[in-house]
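During the reporting period the student researcher (J.K.) took over the structure-prediction task from the postdoctoral fellow and processed the backlog of single-chain submissions. One of the processed entries is reproduced below for the supervisory committee.
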Amino acid sequence: MSKDEALIKGTLDTILRYTYPDTYKKYLSYFIRVRPKELKTKHAHYIRKERMIEIFNLSRESRFLLITCLHEIAHHVEYEDLDDSDHGDTFYERFHQLYMTAVGLKLLELTDIADENDAGDYSGMLTYCGDLSKWKIPDIPDMKKRMVIVKDGRSIRNILKGRGYYWFTVSQTWQREMSTLEEAEREVEFLLKYSNQENLLIRPVISPTFLSYYYIAVENGYEYRYGLKELGYFWEGYGVKKMWVKKVDAQSYYAELEKLTQFAGIEFKKVTPNQTEEKVEKKIKAKKKKQEEEGYIIDYYV
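J.K. obtained the following C-alpha cells:
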C-alpha cells in the first residue's frame, strides 16, 4: 500500500478499534487499494481471497467515499465472524455499528448516508436498522491530533523535509502530524511565509484522506494554447509528451471538464504522469539554468 492508502486504512482501523474495542485486532488484516478510475457499475468492492478493498470513483464527495469504505469493511468483518457475507441483517448490523462510530468520531454527520443518492446504503439501513431519527450516536472522546497538508510543495520541498513532512504519492501532497489544533495553526502560520492560505489545509489525523489527483491531457490544444495556459495547463507537463497537461484534485474533475467545453472540438483524456515530484523539480531547475545561459525566457514550466 502507498502512504495514502495506509492513511485511509489507519482511519478505518480507528473506526474498527472504537467499534469493537475488545476484538478489533482480528479485523485488521485487510488492504486498501485506491484506483483512480471512474466506473458506472460500482464504487468499490471487497476481494475476499486477497482481503482487499478497492476504491473507485474518487470524484465523489469524501463523506460518500468513506461510507463506501465502511460498507466494504462491514463485508470484511462479517466474513471474519461468519465465514460468509451478503446484504442481510447480520451485514447491516455491522455496517450500522461502523457507521455510527464514524459519526461519533465526527468523521461523518448522522444524515450523510441519507444524502448518498448514488448507492443503496440508506435504504438497506432503513430496512434493517429502523428510522434514522432513532439511531444513537456513541459518546467517543475527542481526537486532538491534526494533520497539516501542503497541496503543492514543490517550491518549498526542502523546507518541508526539514520540518518533518512526508510526501504522499496518491494525493500528491506533503503532510505532517501535529499534537493539537493549536500546534497545527502555529505551523500553518509559519508556512504562510512561504506559501498561501489556499495551499494549506488542517485536518483531523483520523479524517479520511481522499485528496487524490487526476492528470487531464489535451491532445489537440494548439489552437487554444493561450486559453489552456490560463487554466493552468502545461505543454508536455509531468513528462506526458505532445500534450497539454493539468493536475486537478479528483473531486474537481468534472468541474474541470466543464471548463474545457468552451474550446470547440477539443479532445482530452486522463493520463498517468511519467515524472515524479523530484523529477519535475529537476526539470524546472534545468530550464531556468538554460534561460540564464542562453539569455531567453520560457513562459511556462511543468
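The committee noted the following: The longest strand covers residues 173-178.
J.K. will present the remaining backlog at the next meeting.
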